[in-house]
Amino acid sequence: MGKDLERLKRRVPLLEYLNRHQWKNHRVSTGPEFVGLCPLHEETHASFYVNAQKNLFYCHGCGRGGDLIRFVELSQHLSFRQSLAYLAEELAPTTQLLVHTAGFYQLELHRHHEGMDYLAERGVHDTKLIDELGIGYARGGGNLRAYLQGFGYSLERVLEVGLINPQGTDTFCRRVIFPCRQQDRIVNLYGRSIGRAFPHRLLPRSKGGLFAWESVRHFRDVILVEGLFDLAVLWQAGFRNTTCAIGTHLTPTQLDWLCEKPDRCVYIAFDQDENHAGQNAASDLLQYLDKAGLNPRLVGLPAGHDPNSYFAAGATAQDFAHLLEEAASL
């Protein structure tokens, strides 16, 4: 592990990484040190120093310092292992490949009516929102492979990421696609089947943090849902403080993000399943967040409904706002 870490840091020198991310600096005298405003906190006087020879940084303003991995931990709010994965992505970027793939699926959505028909069936009809979320459609048939080869991606690379199977068919064949972003980077793709295949599919990689967290984290009150269609209809109805974990079992990172503000109110709006899976997961999460010092509340959707089906059945924004008012706490 130690040799791999040193190799990683040599391949991405700290100063090169900071310059790549628009850190403005100037050299201190003729030595190996550079100084600029600290990227980790707001300041008006430059106190962030980087020693390019030692590959280390230190800020005299906030008192934090370390190597490249430590900087990524602090700036991106990631764990040590997540920071390693983040830097590995810098070296062999899958992100750009996923950007091209998501773009292709967005084009396909408007070329083939079955994708838009399915969105309308699920109650998602706001075209601006569809574009904002980057929703697309995977028709299948091997067209993605040819499209990506046009950008220079090898068959081996596309197979490695899991976008196509060994037969050359799209992994997400006949699915509506949502790009999953973290720190403004696409980290995964979620596909919802419009046919008889298993409903949910993600690429074999991290699903990332909470969906659209960068735009939601500043809200004091947050609505947490299971699925991306739940999020889409709530955003469409004006509840832009909604985020999604893509499932009921939150990762440690997702839990940490929810707990960023100790007085945050979290409305848990999970599915009201017949087998009580959603209700049980919501109850466990309610207790966890309560112990963490937050103010969690359970949203009482009608039996058999999730937020998506609730709106698709004719509920209004006022109806859902009433459910939030009636949400139960411990």
Number of helices: 15
Shape: globular
What series of H and E elements makes up the topology? HHEEEEEHHHHHEHHEEEHEHEHEHEHH
- As for the number of domains, it is 3
Low-confidence stretches: none
**Major β-sheet strand ordering:** 1-2-3-4-5
Largest sheet: 5 strands, antiparallel
The overall pLDDT, averaged over residues, is 90
Total number of strands:
13
Relative helix content: 40-55%
Q: Which CATH C-level class of the largest domain is it? A: Alpha Beta
Task: Kindly report how far apart the N and C termini lie.
Answer: 45 Å
Radius of gyration: 22 Å
Q: Which class do the helix and strand fractions yield?
A: alpha+beta
CATH architecture of the largest domain: 3-Layer(aba) Sandwich
CATH topology term of the largest domain: Dna Topoisomerase Vi A Subunit, Chain: A, domain 2
- The share of residues in extended strands comes to 15-25%
Description:
- The chain has 330 residues and is α+β, with helices and mostly antiparallel strands.
- The chain has three domains: 2-91, Zinc finger, CHC2-typedomain (DNA Primase, Chain A, Alpha-Beta Complex), CATH 3.90.580.10; 95-202, DNA primase DNAg catalytic core, N-terminal domain, CATH 3.90.980; 213-325, 3-Layer(aba) Sandwich (Dna Topoisomerase Vi A Subunit, Chain: A, domain 2).
- It contains 15 helices and 13 strands.
- The protein has helices at 2-11, 14-20, 68-76, 80-91, 95-111, 113-121, 127-133, 143-149, 155-161, 213-216, 228-236, 252-258, 277-291, 307-312, 317-325, and strands spanning 26-27, 33-36, 48-51, 56-59, 65-66, 136-138, 175-182, 185-193, 200-202, 221-225, 242-244, 265-269, 295-298.
- The strands form three sheets. The chain has a five-stranded antiparallel beta sheet with strand order 1-2-3-4-5, covered by helices on one side. Strands 6-7-8-9 form a four-stranded antiparallel beta sheet. Strands 11-10-12-13 form a four-stranded parallel beta sheet, with helices on both faces.
- A hairpin with a 4-residue loop joins strand 3 and strand 4 (56-59).
- The chain starts with a helix and ends in a 5-residue tail after the last helix.
